[in-house]
Design goal:
Number of domains: 1
Shape: flat
Number of helices: 4
Oligomer: single chain
CATH superfamily: YefM-like domain
Largest sheet: 3 strands, mixed
CATH architecture: 3-Layer(aba) Sandwich
CATH class: Alpha Beta
Order of helices and strands: EHHEEHH
């Protein structure tokens, strides 16, 4: 089913119910498809391994455990930042 954005806003409960009962609901704005409303179970099926950024970082191995060395030389210029005239 396709819904115009204004109609989808006015009948959001029905859009959600149809997404659960009948499948994905497409919402258009100015005649262009912009979003799809799907049931949460369908979302989980499509994206079962979604992790938060925090979970992603915590799951990565420590760099100390790697078999290679990474030498980063980070240096910052000691020169003062240039002055910028912001007035027109």
């Amino acid at each position: 089913m396709t819904w115009q954005l204004q109609e989808a806003k006015q009948r959001f409960s029905e859009v959600v119910r149809q997404a659960q009962d009948e499948g994905p609901q497409v919402v258009t704005r100015h005649g262009r498809e912009v979003v799809v409303v799907i049931a949460f179970e369908e979302y989980q099926r499509l994206a079962p391994n979604r992790r938060s950024f925090k979970q992603f970082l915590r799951s990565e191995p420590f760099f100390d455990d790697l078999d290679f060395q990474v030498d980063l030389e980070l240096a910052r210029s000691r020169e003062p930042a240039p002055e910028i005239d912001l007035e027109p």
